[in-house]
Amino acid sequence: MIEMPADVVRQVRLSRRLTMSGLAELSQVPTSTISRIESGRIEPTVAMLTRIATAAGFRYEPVVTEAGSDQTFADTLQNLSEAGPSERERITNLLPVVSSTAPVTHRTGIRRFVLPGDLVSAMRLLQDQNQRPIVSGMEAVAESIDPVRSFIPIVYVDDPAQTKGFAPADRNAFQVMLLLQTTDNVRRWTRNDTEFAMVNRDWAWLDAMASPGRQGDIARGEYESSRPASHRMLPPPTKGFLQH
C-alpha cells in the first residue's frame, strides 16, 4: 500500500513513464512542486495529490488505483478541437504523454481474443452480432484494416463479454485482438464515412501509443516521425512498459 505522498507521486509518474515536467504539464502543477513533493521537502494536500493522480489516469482514495477510463483522452481531444493554432501545436505535442494515462489493457471490460484470420472477417462477424464494432489503433490511423498493421488490433464493441465465435487468447497466442467496451467518449470521436466505423485519427494515435509492449513504443516512434521536425518535443520511449 502506498502511503507517503512522495511515494504516491513518484509511483504515479513512473507507472506512466513520465518525466517530472510531463506530469507537471498534465496536472498543471509546477515542475518544481512535483520535485519538492517527491523529495519530501513539502507535504501536499489531499486535493493536490488527487489532482496529480487524476491527471495521470489514476484515482487517489488515498491509495492510487487504475481508473480504467478514457476520460483524459476525451478531454484532451475536446481541448484540441477548441484550440487556436499555437495551442493546437502544444496539445498535439502532448498526445504521447496523454496516451500514458489510459493504457488499453487497463480499460474497463477489456477482453483478449485470438484474431480468426484477417481483421475484415472479424469485423463482419462482430457486425453480424450487432456489436457495432469500431476500429482504433494503427488501422484507424491508416484508415484501412487490410492489411493489419498492429501486433494487437484494437476494436471497440458494445459488450466484449457477449461476443461469440472468438477464442480467448492466452499468452502463447500468435495473433491477438483486443476488444474494448465502447464508451460515450468513443462514440463522440467515431467517424462512419468508411466501410467500417473508425475512431478519428487523434484518438487512434492515443490508443496505439497506449497499447502494450512493443506496439506502444513503435506507435510513439511513428507518431513522432509524423510530426514536423520543428514541432517534436517528446522523444519516444526506448523500452517497453507493459508486456503481453
Briefly summarize what is shown.
This protein has helices at residues 5-15, 20-27, 31-38, 46-55, 71-82, 85-99, 119-128, 137-142, 184-188, 201-209, 213-226; strands spanning 58-60, 64-66, 111-114, 134-135, 154-157, 176-181, 190-191, 198-199. The protein is of the alpha+beta class and 244 residues long.
Give a structural overview.
With 244 residues, the chain is α+β, with helices and mostly antiparallel strands. The chain has two domains: 1-67, lambda repressor-like DNA-binding domains (434 Repressor (Amino-terminal Domain)), CATH 1.10.260.40; 104-231, no CATH class. It has helices at 5-15, 20-27, 31-38, 46-55, 71-82, 85-99, 119-128, 137-142, 184-188, 201-209, 213-226; strands at residues 58-60, 64-66, 111-114, 134-135, 154-157, 176-181, 190-191, 198-199. The two termini are 25 Å apart. Mean pLDDT is 89; it is low at 230-244.
Q: What would the principal axes of the Cα set say about the shape? A: globular
For the largest sheet, list the strands in their spatial order. 3-6-5-4
Describe the largest sheet. Answer: 4 strands, mixed
Order of helices and strands: HHHHEEHHEHEHEEHEEHH
Low-confidence regions = 230-244
Global mean pLDDT: 89
Topology at a glance:
Elements: H1 5-15, H2 20-27, H3 31-38, H4 46-55, E1 58-60, E2 64-66, H5 71-82, H6 85-99, E3 111-114, H7 119-128, E4 134-135, H8 137-142, E5 154-157, E6 176-181, H9 184-188, E7 190-191, E8 198-199, H10 201-209, H11 213-226
Helix pairs in contact: 2-3, 2-4, 5-6, 6-10, 10-11
